[in-house]
Amino acid sequence: MASTPLVAGIAVAAAALGSRSLIRAWQAFKARPVIPQARKFYPGGFQHEMTRREAALILGVREHAAIEKIKEAHRKVMVANHPDAGGSHYLASKINQAKDLLTGKTKASPSAF
User: Strand, coil or helix: what is 63?
Assistant: First the structure.
């Protein structure tokens, strides 16, 4: 008879400790930094003459996107790859060529490189 309160006390203590551990784990889970999902990038190299499809892949927009979206995507990609910030001159020329092709400022022509 004396063991029943002892077993009940141990069960309550175990439940309290388990609940405390779960609450702490949940708070740690909620406080973790959000890591953005990695996007899959186009695996191939550049074509000799840029097409609208390739230009859209470079900027990450649709082939027939609005000019505002093309310009915003160009700005974001260029900030990440600008030669003054350690980027490549070749990539910067391809990014500019993609923007010009999609906005209709020039026809598809090979890069200067």
Answer: coil
